[in-house]
Amino acid sequence: MSYEKEGFVPNPILTGLVGICPLVVAAKSLAEGAAYGLGAAFCAFLLGLLIPPARAFLPVRLQAPASLALSAALALIYSFCLEMYSSALAAGLWIYLPLLAASGLSLVALRLSSSTSRSGPDGQSRLAVIALQSAWFLVTSACVGAARELLGLGTLTIPTPGPSLSRIAVADFAPLRILVTPAGGFILLGFLAALYRVTLRASGRKGL
Amino acid sequence: MSYLGIVLTSIFASNALLIYGFGSIPERERKGSTSLASALALACVNVIASAILWLIHSLVLAPLRLASLDILFFALIAVPIIKFIARVAQQSSIKQDSILFKLGERSDDLAVGSLVYGIALLSARSGYGLLEAVAASAAAGLGYWLSQFLLEAVRERLELSDLPTSFRGAPAMLLSAGLMALAFMGLDAALIKNLVGA
C-alpha cells in the first residue's frame, strides 16, 4: 500500500478496527485504557521481536502452536506484573488481561512476524511497523478510556501503584453517562473513526 | 438459573460481541460469516473449547491454585484439539461445498481469536457446572452469530443509503453496533431471570 512506501503507519484501531471490540469494553477509564493499551503493545512488540528468531530453530509443525503459547505466556507475564503494580487495575480489566493473548494487535503481530513473503517489508521493517502500530494502539486506548471516563463520569482515574486507584473529580456533572457502557464505547469509536478519516483526507492521504 | 435462563442470558444480556466485545464486527471481505455453517461452527467450537477449559480449570488448575494459568493451558491444549477436529472434518467431507467441509474450515479460522478464548474463559470462571458452561458457551456462540447476522443486514442497507463519505464503512458499522448494543442491554439478566424463573 502507498502508506508503507511513505513510511506512514495508520492508526490500526481507527482504520483497520484492529482489536477494537475488547477495547470497547476494557477501556472504561484513563487508567484501564492505558493499562490495556500497554498490555496489547507489550505482547505485540515482544511477539514481533521473539518469533522470527524462534522460527529458525523450531520445526515447521511446532511453529504455530509455539507462537500461540508464547502469546499466552506474554499475556500472563503482563497480568502478573499489573497485579503486582495495582491489584485494583488488574481486577478492573478482569478477563481482558488474559485475552491480550488473542487481541487483534497480537494476531496482527503474529501474522506479520510469521510471514515468509519476500515481496513484503524485511524483518526490521516489520518490527518497526509492529512497534508503530503498538504505539498507536496504546495512545488510542488511553485517549478513548480518558474521553469515556471524563464525559461519562466526570472523573479521571490515574494509574497509581497500590491496592486502590486515585480518582480526580474533573466535573460535577456527567454529560454522556452512556459512554461508560459498551454501547457508548462503540458509538464514540464510530465518531472517532469518522473524524480520523476526515483528518487523513485533509492531510492528503487518500485511499485509507 | 435454569438452562433456558442461561441460554437466553448468553444470547442477549451477555452477548459475546455487543456486551463483552469478543470477536470483531463484520467486514466486507469476510464472506460466509453469517451462514448456517458459521452458526454451527461457532456453537461446536465454543462447546469443545469451553468443555476442555472447564475440565482443565476445575479439575487440575483450581485445586492446585493455578487457575490464572488457564489461558496458557488453553493455548497449549484446547487450540490444537479444535484445529485437529476441524482438519478431520474437512478431510472427511467428500465435497468442498458440503456443510461439514465449511464447518471444518470456519472452525479452523475460529480456533485462534478472542471470541473462542473469551467465551471459554468466561464459562470456566463463572462458577457454572460443566453442562451449564457448555450450554452457556453454545448459546454465546449463537448470540455472536445473531449479532453478526443483524449487523450484516444493517451493513447491506447502509451501503444503499446516502451516508456522508466519512461515515461510510467502519464508522457506520461501529455506530450501528453501538445502537444494537443499547437494544441488547435492555434485556438484562434480571429481567430474563424474572421471565423464565430462577
Would you write up a description of this structure?
The complex is a heterodimer of chains A (208) and B (198). Chain A has 208 residues and is mainly alpha-helical. Chain A has one domain. Helix content of chain A is 68%, strand content 4%. In chain A, helix 3 crosses helix 9 and helix 7 runs antiparallel to helix 8. Chain A starts with a helix and ends in a 6-residue tail after the last helix. The mean pLDDT of chain A is 84. With 198 residues, chain B is mostly helical. Chain B contains 8 helices and no strands. In chain B, helix 2 crosses helix 4, helix 2 crosses helix 5 and helix 2 runs antiparallel to helix 6. Chain B is globular and about 60 Å long. The mean pLDDT of chain B is 83. Chains A and B meet through helix 3, helix 5 and helix 9 of A and helix 3, helix 5 and helix 7 of B.
Fold topology:
The complex is a heterodimer of chains A (208) and B (198).
Chain A: H1 2-6, H2 12-16, H3 20-26, H4 30-57, H5 60-85, H6 87-93, H7 104-114, H8 123-153, E1 155-158, E2 166-169, H9 182-202
Antiparallel strand pairs in A: 1-2
Chain B: H1 3-13, H2 36-61, H3 70-92, H4 99-110, H5 114-125, H6 130-160, H7 170-185, H8 189-196
Helix pairs in contact in B: 1-6, 1-8, 2-3, 2-4, 2-5, 2-6, 3-4, 5-6, 6-7
